[in-house]
Amino acid sequence: MATQASTAKPQSRSMLADIVDSIFTPGTNSGLIRAMDMSFYALFAVLVVMVVLTRGNGHICALFALSVGLFASIKWFLVQIAEAEEQHRRERLAKEQQQEADAAIKGGKAQ
Fold it and tell me: Which portions of the sequence form the region Disordered (predicted)?
């Protein structure tokens, strides 16, 4: 049991460290996204319980629908950011390869 407890602590510390690091660095990281996911899951659980307890109150159902929409839009936005970063990385790599090829051609002509 000691190994299970010791493996759980570094994961929670790393998530907390990722959250703190995300304050000082641009962009997102896995710890920040994981914390956001857990926060939304807790919100969904609370709203589902409230819908059951209030027997389907319209206001609570509307809040639940809004929170699901917000969660989906944030997840979509994060996917779009990741795709844009990947495309930028590929373009930069292609540009570097083109510059190396041009330098090789110029080096061959000089000889």
Answer: 92-111
Fill in the DSSP letter of residue 67: H
Burial pattern 32-60, b for ≥16 Cβ within 10 A else e, equals bbeebeeebeebeeebeeebeeeeeeeeb
Indicate left, alpha or beta for 29 from its phi (over 0: left) and psi (-120 to 50: alpha): beta
Model confidence pLDDT, tens digit, residues 10-54: 455 678 888 888 888 887 888 889 999 999 999 999 999 999 999
Closest CA to 33 of 60, 71, 7: 71
Residues 59-109 pLDDT 10s: 999 999 999 999 999 999 999 999 999 999 999 999 999 999 888 888 766
Looking at residue 55, the DSSP 8-state letter turns out to be T
- The pTM of this model reads 0.72
